[in-house]
Amino acid sequence: MTDWSPSIERLRALDNGEWLRVQDTYCGRLLAYANRRTGDLQASEDVVQETLMGAVRGINDFDPTFTFEQYLFGICRNRTIDYLRRRKAQTIQVGEDDSGFPGMESLAHSTDTPSAIVRGRELNTRAKALLGLILREWVEETWEQGEFVRLAVIEALFSGGWRNRDTWKRFELRDETSVAGIKFRAIKRLKQLAAVHESGNDLLRYLALAEEGDTRLLDVDVRDIWRDARLSCPGRHWLARHAAGTLEAGPAGFLVFHLDEMKCPWCQANHDDLTRRDKDAELDVVLERVRESTLRFLGRDSMGERPA
């Protein structure tokens, strides 16, 4: 199983076949995501329909910084929040559903001069982009090296905000200094990656990579960047192998941690979709509704045949 992504050019041209494949490919995982949050299948179907229609309407504004799946899940997240607010839910998971996707607040202070504010915002935007880039490179390196415990430790620290003493016990390391060592080496490597991309640039002076013990890696919120960019989310084919029980112990252990302890909403939705029973019967209802809505929007007589 491969991780398919559509052609944005064809989607912007309102290509019937490409949009139909998007609906067939992503509908199940979007439905699983919405259903986890609403607990109402009918409401979840409405959310998915609104999400896919919103994707069609907004495709010209697609930001290539993010993947198409992130684009869809961002819309779905917002539509889910809208539904919960309409229902006047008593609680909404703040860290996940009110954190913004993918926007973040500026670090500029109101006492700064206008030029300083502009400069600060520009540096902050570049800082977040650089941090996302080097963290992704570090995650990919670590995954390829098969260092899944190291990856889980850094995710626990950077994304989960865990303390060293809780982390070493969870992963059965020698003591807290083992956790500090993993963090120190990760930050050292991140510094090297940052220097490759920004050698001699003023951005490196603005970004002070944290020393051991600091709560923030950079002068931006690492947790938001890690979660919004889905830095440690495995491809769907890894989740499929995990669901089938054919994954090796190392990556399987990381996926259990990522799904059950970090509770990644995007990967949980993909996993739910892969393991759901009576999947076709549920999806046929939603797909028919989405198909009709898309037809009306495009003003076409046919969306073509469903791909095999």
Quick rundown:
The chain has 308 residues and is mostly helical.
Question: Given the C-alpha coordinates, what overall shape results?
Answer: globular
Strand content: under 5%
What's the helix-strand series?
HHHHHHHHHHHHHHH
Q: What is the count of β-strands?
A: 0
Instruction: List low-pLDDT spans.
Output: 89-114, 301-308
Backbone structural class: mainly alpha
**Major beta sheet, specifics?**
none
Number of domains: 2
Radius of gyration over alpha carbons?
Answer: 21 Å
N-to-C CA distance: 14 Å
* Average pLDDT reading: 81
Q: Please give the share of residues in helix.
A: 55-70%
Q: Please, how many helices? A: 15
What does this structure look like?
The chain has helices at 8-12, 16-38, 41-58, 68-86, 94-97, 114-144, 148-158, 164-170, 176-198, 202-206, 222-228, 236-244, 249-261, 265-275, 279-298. It folds into two domains: 8-102 and 277-298, no CATH class; 114-228, no CATH class. It is globular, with a radius of gyration of 21 Å. The model is unreliable at 89-114 and 301-308 (pLDDT under 50). The chain has 308 residues and is mainly α.
Defining traits:
disordered C terminus; mainly alpha
Topology:
Layout: H1 8-12, H2 16-38, H3 41-58, H4 68-86, H5 94-97, H6 114-144, H7 148-158, H8 164-170, H9 176-198, H10 202-206, H11 222-228, H12 236-244, H13 249-261, H14 265-275, H15 279-298
